[in-house]
Design brief:
The protein is mainly alpha-helical. Helix content is 57%, strand content 4%. The chain has helices at 17-24, 37-40, 65-88, 101-110, 112-128, 132-160, 169-173, 180-190, 194-223, 227-257, 261-279, 281-290, 298-317, 328-334, 338-349, 362-371, 376-392, 441-449, 451-454, 460-465, 483-491, 506-515, and strands spanning 356-357, 416-417, 420-424, 427-431, 434-438, 500-501. Strands 1-6 form a two-stranded parallel ribbon.
């Protein structure tokens, strides 16, 4: 009897990473037929950017969606296991000092909502770009940003059980005066075109400046015993490294496509460097004043992460025709001043913020003098020593009037001239018969480039004085009306709990009751 070997189906050759990535990106796209591509994607040409070959857009990680879900799922398991252990072991009592919690209040209301804004922004940018590779990259980054917002809210919600000021971050982000600074940055980017949005967020913010945001917060959390925040920071940072690489590759892609793109990108780099730098004023203040145990000074961080790393980046981009951002030298001159100027603002207006403020202790002022030998003792120590003496006499004072704001960055006009730290910097422009005020040449330049956009800025001080920041149904004409109390109610800030001087705050009183520690006699915590 004879047998005949069964015919074998030839094995399908396994695709390489490059081919598989191409199939899962370019292979999913098509040219439209009954509608023109320009009608389907109307926004990726109006900025003037010229793209000749969308297939040159490359994801250096060549990440496909199935691999993406696998990696992210593994990170989620580890993250939530650590958060659960932190909660079960009352990790909130292992922090160095309850003043540290105020950095989380700043982060939760000022940074976490930006992650959600970035999620929406990348979803819109992806819809606007006709290149399939770009759309897939934007989709994954959009999901990343949503995940970051969720993990941050979830992690920090544990502290809301014990400390004030963490109860309504989304509401506060849209209303509280100082939170208009980060909010306006992202709304400015999201109301631009898709290429400008990607340059603003993926390049200027993610690549050039993100280390100045994430490093201080996450290293500060580690130094001060907050391992839950460290964990979500590490979980997000692995995504951030991908975002940073994409940001640089995106800019290079645009620059390589057409020489006419170079001046457009340079203008965006100038604009978004300055806008991002002004936003980081809040981080500078946090690093130098709000961390009980400090990692490094803002000046040191600026030198390391911008002057050295950023300088090397722009040397590399010089071959594309891109120079260092305009006014970078002003930022370097201000590195020894902006944190002190910002803390002075909040020391005046802490009663209208969702976190506490305080005069730095003598050991902290010694640290500041060591880090800022040219400015602190001569310019800022006398002010803080006077404020400390006033507080001892029961004369702790908060400013109940409202400051002039910069029309562009929306920070109170308290910055000083680049070459004179004793003189307030003031600039102005006129547009359609109205005067607008700016804290710097950089902010004035941004306004002058697009005045029709920035005249629409929602400035908190203007809105408060116009009566637009009171709860619905408020009657400001009644006898004894307290406008500040009404504004704080509108902000959802609990008067007497969330705001004001740390030394008289419920957070301090509760901490001492829970731990049996007298903070007035505690050992210095400065690292």
């Amino acid at each position: 009897m004879t047998t005949q070997a069964a015919a074998k189906t030839p094995a399908t050759p396994r695709l390489g990473l490059k081919e598989r990535y191409a199939m899962m990106t370019r292979g999913l796209g098509w040219e439209t037929s009954y509608q023109s591509m320009d009608d389907v994607f109307p926004f990726d040409k109006f900025e003037g950017i010229k793209i000749h070959d969308w297939d040159k857009w490359e994801d250096p990680f060549r990440l496909t969606m199935d691999a993406y879900w696998k990696f992210q799922g593994e990170k989620e398991k580890k993250l939530y296991a650590i958060i659960d252990a932190f909660q079960q072991n009352n990790g909130q009592f292992n922090i160095s000092d309850p003043r540290y919690l105020n950095t989380l209040k700043l982060f939760l209301t000022g940074v976490s909502p930006l992650e959600y804004a970035a999620h929406r922004g990348y979803a819109m940018a992806g819809r606007s770009l006709r290149g399939v590779g770009a759309r897939v990259a934007c989709q994954m980054q959009s999901i990343d940003e949503l995940r970051h917002a969720q993990t941050q809210f979830h992690t920090i919600s544990h502290f809301n059980k014990y400390f004030h000021g963490l109860h309504d971050p989304q509401h506060m982000h849209d209303r509280v005066w100082y939170l208009s600074v980060p909010k306006s940055y992202f709304e400015d980017a999201m109301s631009a075109g898709p290429f400008e949005f990607i340059t603003a967020i993926s390049f200027s913010f993610e690549y050039v400046l993100t280390n100045l945001l994430f490093m201080p917060f996450m290293s500060g959390a580690a130094y001060n015993g907050d391992m839950a925040t460290v964990t979500f920071g590490f979980s997000a940072q692995s995504d951030e490294s991908r975002h940073m690489t994409l940001g640089l590759e995106v800019v290079k892609f645009i620059l390589e496509q057409d020489p006419d793109n170079v001046p457009i990108v340079q203008k965006w780099v100038d604009k978004w460097f300055w806008r991002g730098y002004r936003l980081l004023t809040l981080v500078a203040m946090m690093m130098d004043y709000m961390l009980p145990k400090r990692v490094m000074s803002w000046s040191e961080a600026w030198e390391m992460y911008f002057e050295k790393n950023g300088g090397a980046l722009f040397e590399d981009l010089a071959r594309y025709g891109i120079r260092m951002p305009k006014y970078h030298e002003v930022a370097s001159k201000e590195k020894s001043r902006i944190s002190h100027e910002a803390w002075a603002i909040f020391n005046n207006y802490g009663h209208a913020a969702n976190f506490n403020v305080w005069v730095p202790k003598p050991d902290e002022m010694s640290w500041l003098a060591e880090k800022y030998p040219e400015t602190f003792d001569s310019l800022y120590r006398p002010r803080f020593e006077w404020l400390a003496e006033q507080e001892k006499q029961g004369k702790r004072w908060f400013n109940n009037t409202l400051p002039m704001l910069c029309q562009t960055c929306q920070i109170p006009m308290a910055f000083t001239e680049p070459d004179d730290p004793t003189k307030i910097c003031y600039r102005e422009s006129s547009y359609h018969g109205m005067k607008y005020h700016f804290c710097s040449d950089g902010c004035k330049d941004v306004f002058d480039g697009e005045p029709e956009k920035y005249v629409q800025a929602w400035l908190p001080v203007h809105q408060i004085y116009q009566g637009n920041c009171f709860p619905e149904g408020t009657d400001p004409t009644v006898e004894g009306f307290n406008p500040l109390a009404a504004v704080l109610d509108y902000y959802h800030i609990n008067v007497g709990a969330d705001n004001g001087e740390f030394n008289t705050s419920p957070d301090k009183a509760n901490w001492e009751r829970w731990t049996g520690q007298d903070l007035s006699t505690a050992e210095p915590k400065v690292a």
